[in-house]
Amino acid sequence: MTALTLTPRQARIGLNLFTGAVVVSVAVALAGLTWRIAGHAGTGAITVPSGTSGPAVTPDIGAAVALAPFGKPSVSEAGQATALPLELKGVIAAGPGDLSSAFISVSGQPAKAYKVGDNINGATIQAILRDQVILANGGRNEFLAFPDPTLTPEQRQAAAAGQPAAAPANPVTTGPGTPPPARTPGAPPAPAPAPPAATVAGILQRFDASPVQGGYRIGDNGPPGMVAGDVIQSVNGTSLSDPAAAQGAFAAAQANGNAQIQILRDGKRITLTVPLR
Q: Does residue 15 form part of some domain?
């Protein structure tokens, strides 16, 4: 038996015929699909209702909405700060959120630990977040955030007790009868000077913390949320294993007003947010 040998011209003609057959086959398939999409086929047709063929029927999507495919509203959405005489002293963030704790002072009293669902001064704690607490008060959600770091301790205490904060004394002495400095009309008032930043050593003293291997150990007089023996391992994600990095981390956190601190307690890592001013 001899093999069939094609000349170059015959091979080219055969390739062209095959290519043409493929193109015709694809065109026929697309024509059938277009025919069905246009609604001319009785089976499997995709029809688009016309605005003149009768009243439009609105599909009932209530069941789908009830499933909340895009998520349910969060109780953490609180539009206004609470006016209750409360001051947030510290937060232990945990997962799930029901295991979190918030250390709150009521009317200037020593801070106590509260959990989700607890009642505090007539409001119910709805959620405890890293930097604020959501309260249900009088049918609306309110938030309790950490105190303004620009306030003095006396102003914070007055605000926590529900009293108007006294204006800070002007350190600049002007002679009797000297009028206040003139301000350009329309210009915003000059911002109040922030209190001097505490030193890193002062922060560690307030925490009653001493350096140990891998961080700083809390003593008997730590802030709310910490207990003696806790070891601070990181501040805002910066490890405290290196003394130089620890100094920078505490300084940056103190400038921000509060910090997210990771502590080691009985072999477990706990995240705690505390004010640093």
A: no
| Same domain as 210, residue 142 | no
DSSP state of 125: E
pTM confidence score = 0.53
Q: Which one, of 219, 218, 220, 221, lies nearest residue 262 by Cα? A: 218
Q: What is the pLDDT of residues 186-226, one digit of tens each?
A: 666 555 444 444 567 778 888 888 888 888 899 988 888 88
pLDDT tens by residue, 242-260: 778 888 888 888 777 778 8
Please state whether beta strands 112-114 and 119-120 pair in parallel, antiparallel, or not at all (unpaired): unpaired
From first CA to last CA, the distance across the chain in angstroms is 99
Any idea what the CATH number is for the domain that residue 120 is in? Answer: 2.30.30.830
Selection from 110, 144, 113 nearest residue 129 by Cα: 144
**Residue 87 is assigned to a structural domain of this protein:** yes
The β-bridge partners of 24 are none
Q: What token pair was written down for 7?
A: 């000349």
Q: Which of 256, 252, 209 is nearest to 233 (CA)?
A: 209
Range of the domain at 123: 80-160
